[in-house]
Amino acid sequence: MRFAMNHIAAPKVDLVEFFEMAKRLGTTEVEIRNDLPNVVATWAPEDVKAAAEKAGVTILSINALYPFNVWSGDLPERAVAMADYAAACGAKALVMCPLNDGTPVSHSQTVAALDAMKPILTERGLTGLVEPLGFPISSLRTKAEAIAAITEAGDDGTYKVLHDTFHHHLAGETQFYPNRTGLVHISGVTDPGVAVADMLDAHRVLVDAADRLENIAQIRALIAAGFSGPYSFEPFAEEVHNADDPEAALAESIAYVKAQL
């Protein structure tokens, strides 16, 4: 399987070192971010591209455009700026996350946003990775909903869904869409005391034997169904971010996942 590395797996590691670390871990695909750490606001895109080329890694995506499904205010301007940055730094895609504050967003609004975003992506040769968020307050919780909106917007390959093992579990999804999936995010939850409905990003750690999200079962199902794309580590927990040796921790999680498969 193809492992990839999201910069949030080691946000305190400098970008250049992060690229080199990813390569040492046997991964040649990475994701950069506009939040933690905010590479987009602190690095010139041409410098990001040069660093990636020097390290021998491919930038899968910038994570993330939010909230993509409310096409108003400054979102169109931010979408263009992020797409320009992605094209300039050599990224292949933009991750697109829905509104996640309890406000409902209709199917038609989501389709309209996808329609508006499509020319921005296509003119720059980018893919839009639509990531449903499984939280109870999310305006787009499931991949089924996302695929329905993508289909109505015209399924010409501009959009793929992003399968996040954490959000798949939170939303109670059972269906897999390997042919519609462009990227998988993997992370685990090991806290035995938190209910599924109360799980938050802060609970997301690296995948190990104590994982409650059934990452291994999800990965097996995706592989069996024919998905051959990358699996990118995306842990949000501070204990991961503050690890004394993030490279060793990631190597251990990679080894665990490989051993289970």
TrEMBL record:
Q: What is the lineage of its organism?
A: Bacteria, Pseudomonadati, Pseudomonadota, Alphaproteobacteria, Rhodobacterales
PANTHER family with a match to the protein in the record: BLL3656 PROTEIN, HYDROXYPYRUVATE ISOMERASE
Q: Where is the Xylose isomerase-like TIM barrel domain?
A: 19-259
The name this protein goes by in its record: TIM barrel protein
